[in-house]
Design a protein that fits this description.
The protein is an alpha/beta fold. Helices cover 30% and strands 26% of the residues. It has nine helices and 13 strands. This is Phosphate ABC transporter, phosphate-binding family protein. It comes from Anaerococcus hydrogenalis ACS-025-V-Sch4. The complex is composed of two ATP-binding proteins (PstB), two transmembrane proteins (PstC and PstA) and a solute-binding protein (PstS).
């Protein structure tokens, strides 16, 4: 049975944080923006700040995240969607796979985020989805699951979530293995990995796959500590002690509340300036 562990924001906190917001968002009037970001350790945040140009290197070679200190930090993809869904002034970023009709996706430089624009390269905010593991600790079951994820058999499930699948053309054949596989990491991957796990279980009746959702760094730490078998990561693997299989390319969607009529398209520079705190009101986007 596939299980899911989500970090969910309290409804009370969400409502109270929005209670003081202006109510003129849908009236064509300018308003102050509520910049929303993910937590440190989130693979989505890492990919976003790198691609938008929010990383600055100091004299000692250290990298600094220039996201404004006034941003509202939320610890899960689901929490971000809920926050933007109730806050008419919010702007945020989420995995394209998480996008639903509770929010509105914003075009970047006139390009909408979707599988076609990602495949063509027209939509610039994209990143790899991968599964990380320790080579010397890889079990037969883990190897078989990774083989399945990269197979033609998994491609349809991956692309149903709007991802560009990085698979081969080989059909997966069950080896009738037995056991339990535990996977943890980025909440951005949880939806597609759960679907893959459920189908893998159907093909392997004596296998249980448990999927736990938190963040990329937590997943990587759990793999290194031997707590889980595989980590879900939503950016390029930089840890040289681990290996990974990239199975899809994801888009990072910029989202606002559905009642927000002022923001439908942003340039990459405007997006960067919003997250640096240099643009704070929709009137400055003119």
């Amino acid at each position: 049975m596939v299980k899911k562990l989500l970090l969910i924001l309290s409804t009370l906190i969400l409502l109270s944080s929005c209670s003081s917001k202006k109510e003129n968002v849908g009236d064509g009037k300018n308003f102050d923006l509520t910049v929303t970001s993910r937590e440190d350790g989130s693979g989505t945040r890492k990919s976003f700040v790198e691609q938008v140009g929010l990383i600055r290197e100091d004299e000692k070679g250290n990298h600094e995240d220039m996201t404004t200190d006034n941003s509202m930090v939320i610890n899960s993809t689901n929490g971000v969607l809920k926050a933007v869904g109730v806050d008419k002034t919010a702007i945020a970023y989420v995995s394209l796979t998480a996008l639903d009709d509770s929010v509105k996706a914003v075009k970047i430089d006139g390009i909408s985020p979707n599988k076609d624009s990602i495949e063509s390269g027209a939509y610039k905010l994209q990143r790899p989805f991968g599964l990380a593991y320790k080579k010397d600790a890889l079990t037969d079951l883990s190897k078989d699951f990774l083989t399945y994820v990269k197979s033609k058999s998994a491609k349809k499930l991956i692309e149903e979530d709007g991802l560009l699948a990085i698979t081969n053309e080989k059909e997966y054949k069950s080896k009738n293995l037995k056991g339990k596989l535990t996977i943890t990491g980025s909440s951005s991957l949880s939806s597609v990995v759960e679907k893959l796990a459920e189908n893998y279980e159907k093909l392997n009746k004596d296998v249980e796959v448990e999927v736990l959702s938190n963040e990329s760094l937590t997943g990587l730490k759990n793999v290194k500590d031997g707590v889980v078998d595989i980590a879900m990561i939503s950016n390029k693997l930089e840890d040289k002690n681990l290996s990974s299989e990239v199975f899809a390319i994801d888009g990072i969607a910029i989202i606002v509340n559905k009642d927000n009529k002022e923001i439908n398209n942003l340039s990459l520079k405007q997006l960067r300036d919003i997250y640096k705190g240099e643009i704070t009101n929709t009137g400055e986007l003119r």
